[in-house]
Amino acid sequence: MVLLAAGALLALVLQSRHDTEREARNRSVSVAQTFAHSLGLQDTLKTSDPSKTLQPLAETTRKAAGVDFIVVMDTNGIRYSHPQPDRIGKRFVGNIEPSLKGQVHTESVDGPLGKEIQAVVPVTGPDGKVNALVSAGLTVKNVTGVVDRQLPVILLAIATGLALATVGTALISRRLRRQTHGLGTQEMTRMYEHHDAVLHAVREGVLITDGEGRLLLANDEAKRLLGLPEDADGRHIADVPGLDRRMADLLLSGREATDEVLESGDRLLVVNQRPTHPRGRPEGAAITIRDSTEMQVLTSRAETARRRLKLLYDAGGDIGTSLDVVRTAEELAAVAVPRFADFVTVDLADQVIDGEEPRAGSDMRRTAVSGIRSDHPLYPVGRLIDFLPSTPQARGYGTGRAELVPHLADAPGWQAQDPPRAQAIVDYGIHSLIAAPLMARGVVLGVVNFWRSQKQEPFDEDELSLAEELVARAAVSMDNARRYTREHALAVTLQRSLLPRALPEQSAMDVAHFYLPAQSGVGGDWFDVIPLAGCRVALVVGDVVGHGLHAAATMGRLRTAVHNFSSLDLPPDEILARLDDLVQRIDHDGEGDDVNGGVLGATCLYAVYDPVSQRCTVARAGHLPPLVVAPDGTTEIVELPAGPPLGLGGMPFETAELDLAEGSQLVLYTDGLIEERTRDIGEGLELLRAALSHPDRDPHESCRAVLDMLLPPRPTDDVALLIARTRTLGPDRVAQWEVPFQPSAVGAMRNAAAKKLDEWGLGDLGFATELILSELITNALRHGSAPVRVRLLHDHNLTCEVWDGSSTAPHLRYAATTDEGGRGLFLVAQLSEHWGTRYTPEGKVIWAELALPGGESGTEAALAAFLDVDAL
């Protein structure tokens, strides 16, 4: 009845407060809305001092409306009015965000007047925009005043109800006592017997102690679980024989315990203890005990299964993160330590590391070792091991089935491999082994060895199954890495066979180069240095889009084509045009085949440098522009006509001519050097300029500086870099004459050439040179047109050039014995190392190269055969 009365009082108070608060909210909203819509408020807000008018008006309205405050504020919450004038101009306490959106918002806050129930109403203009806010409300003390006045009446009513309830309860209790006195002793005895039978029959131990630490009651299950004697009831807990000490301490403490786990002998008990309060004060405790030994065993097995599943799950994510055989082996060894084994070693067939399939009877190389300690006596990484047939590794490698050696000390077949090391392993504490073969697609790649030392129990059959499953999952990643290694090695071999192994001999430039294939697969970048006639040299850099064997093969085709076109001595724009036609034909040939039949895209930059004129002619097809480093250190990106990438067709290529001072550096590169995920091309070009702004460095030093600044740790694209420092063929090594357009000039040119050869110390070449010049000048005068010029270049060979204004192409003929002419070019070809023709805007140049005396040359033999005398 007391609870009912208290509940009723609480309900009345809450209801009253709810009604009062609702009334306060309604009144606040009404007053605020009325004031917000009052006439003249909009005009007053536009005045320079709204508070002067609004403060007295708000106070008058507040007193008339019976609220505790009316506050007018701007949209930032700054007050124009307040019952406390010192609060004017300060920020309003409350949430005004809903009202700024045009909503009426009520809330309870701690304001300047105390706990307040307030309403905030927007003041909107004709255009619907919120111009100001009005808040009105009551403080909580005024709201609860009504409840306080009603409280005496409510308490009087409750007291009257309690008095009536007390009288009624007394009457009912008296009636019940009379009825209870009629219960007989047999019924009461039977009731207690039933209670005792249930207490001792339950499969949960029950103990009851008093406040002095005596054991009042222990049922049969409690005595069995705790090993208590039959006469334990009535004894002090400290004197009960056979009771575990930790259990006795818990019972004597009297504290509350919930599902505490204690060991008692070979049992695992779950104990719950609650203090009892029979007469309102602690006088003992009630304890229940459950045997959870079997549950613990099941839980342990479930936990073991969970850990093994977690190991397999983690292995799926941690093994095979890279397509590298050695890295995959290291990941396999690391994932199993220490969760499954104390030491793990991975032995792979030697061919597997190189990407090949293992052969029968192959030796195995220790590829990875992981363990809880580093001072183990196991074979180190890199050791080539020839396992004896008696060892579990050899048996597993031969049969493809995992081998379990529970006790290494008793395994003579394993110890026969290396008795001293085997004894050291056993002495170290390693006592159990699982050797599981790595098998993928029916091929055994190697053996994984799991060693145990810390845990005293040896490996069992369940752990053998786990090792087989773990290794089977890792074998797939290992085989993928092996196959990738093979494909990558093939692609790299193909690519390197297609790239220049050494730069050719030439004296026009000092050249340094660098090439690095991408880590994810070789691509189609290439570079070339091609000597041309007239001491000139061609520099080439290109890039085929894509990676793999197809890109490398396409690069080889394009590089071969560039060499062939260069032998024709074509200008750069014409070479790029022919390459463009070639790529279009390749794409056309690939139509109807697989997606790798054609060229996905290719770029190229072709530059020709002449050391005599110090002029460089450049053209590019969609490639990045070159950089020129002047001798004073000025570095600039050469602005060239871009030209379309190779294979698009339909658009011409343009050339640009650069005048390079002696000692200038011309830098050609591919996008793999400057483009990276963490930076764009513009930033890469600026870094490249910064690395090259040291003219005192030679090309090799500049190349190292560029790589140190720009080369990423793991390039995702091929990187090609070519840095060439220009040289000049000085006037002392160049002789040039204008030839009068008349036959008599041939003899004068021979004499002038012979004199110049004597100055150069090349008199031994005089006869061959005079004969070549006679034939070439005669052909120019007879079949060409003016002007005719002769030029000799003294470099690592002697170059004879005859210029004329005709574009008529000369042809090598093989004259019959009865022919009177037609042997001129044949003689030139026999006496020179190389000869050829190149065309200029003014006509053509026929040139011939002769090896300098003392070098390996066929000129002397040809000359001797021509004169029909023995070679000197």
UniProtKB/TrEMBL annotation:
Organism (species): Streptomyces spororaveus
Record localization: Cell membrane
PROSITE patterns according to UniProt: PAS (PS50112)
Name of protein: Histidine kinase
Keyword Signal: no
Pfam families, A to Z: GAF (PF01590), HATPase_c_2 (PF13581), PAS (PF00989), sCache_3_2 (PF17203), SpoIIE (PF07228)
Residue stretches making up the PAS domain: 191-231
Keywords assigned by UniProt, alphabetized: ATP-binding, Cell membrane, Hydrolase, Kinase, Membrane, Nucleotide-binding, Phosphoprotein, Transferase, Transmembrane, Transmembrane helix, Two-component regulatory system
Gene3D superfamilies with a match to the protein in the record: 3.30.450.40, Histidine kinase-like ATPase, C-terminal domain, PAS domain, PPM-type phosphatase domain
Keyword Transferase: yes
Record-annotated membrane-spanning stretches: 151-172
Alphabetical list of InterPro entries matching this protein: Bact_Sigma-Reg, GAF, GAF-like_dom_sf, HATPase_C_sf, HATPase_dom, PAS, PAS-like_dom_sf, PAS_fold
Listed SUPFAM superfamilies: ATPase domain of HSP90 chaperone/DNA topoisomerase II/histidine kinase, GAF domain-like, PP2C-like, PYP-like sensor domain (PAS domain), Sensory domain-like
Topology in membrane: Multi-pass membrane protein
GO function term, MF aspect, one: kinase activity
